[in-house]
Write a structure and sequence with these properties.
The protein is of the alpha+beta class. The protein has 4 helices and 5 strands. The relative contact order is 0.18. Bound molecules: tetrahydrodeoxyuridine. Tetrahydrodeoxyuridine binds next to helix 2.
Length: 137
């Protein structure tokens, strides 16, 4: 399902927006939320958590993945990333690789603002020719 129709993504978007408002981003002031639907239909959310030692901060997507794994999830069926601003809040390069671990090339990565979905990408579009678990099989 790669529709940009917000209604389809609303439960994930709602979870991501709640997470976004919980973000700890005192340095950038840029709050991000992410929400994953796993292959059991369970939602897992996370937010960015910054640190005075800047490189130690973590992204919203990493928090959502950690929540999924902690809850026993091992497969990302879809992920919504939400943030404010004019430009699309696409996952950073590191997070694309983190998503790759638990997703397939056609897994939707939905970029949203709190008002709704802005664009739907596939993982393959954001991280082509990715290295993943298959390479080690
Ligand atoms: N950030 C995320 O959490 N996810 C993204 O997709 C892009 C960037 C965070 C990292 C940092 O805390 C802040 O946004 C500014 O880069």
């Amino acid at each position: 399902m790669h529709t940009a129709d917000s209604a389809v993504w609303q439960p994930l978007l709602d979870a991501a927006v709640i997470a976004m408002h919980a973000a700890y981003a005192p340095y950038s002031g840029f709050q991000v939320g992410a929400a994953i639907r796993d292959d059991q239909g369970v939602l897992h959310a996370g937010c960015n958590v910054e640190n005075a030692a800047y490189p130690e901060g973590t992204c919203a997507e990493a928090g959502a993945i950690a929540a999924m794994v902690k809850n026993g999830g091992r497969r990302i069926e879809a992920i919504v990333v939400v943030g404010e601003g004019e430009l699309l809040v696409t996952p950073c390069g590191g997070c694309r690789q983190k998503i790759r671990e638990f997703a397939k090339p056609d897994t939707p990565i939905v970029v949203a603002s709190p008002d709704g979905v802005r664009r739907v990408f596939t993982l393959d579009a954001l991280l082509p020719a990715a290295f993943g678990p298959d390479n080690l099989a």
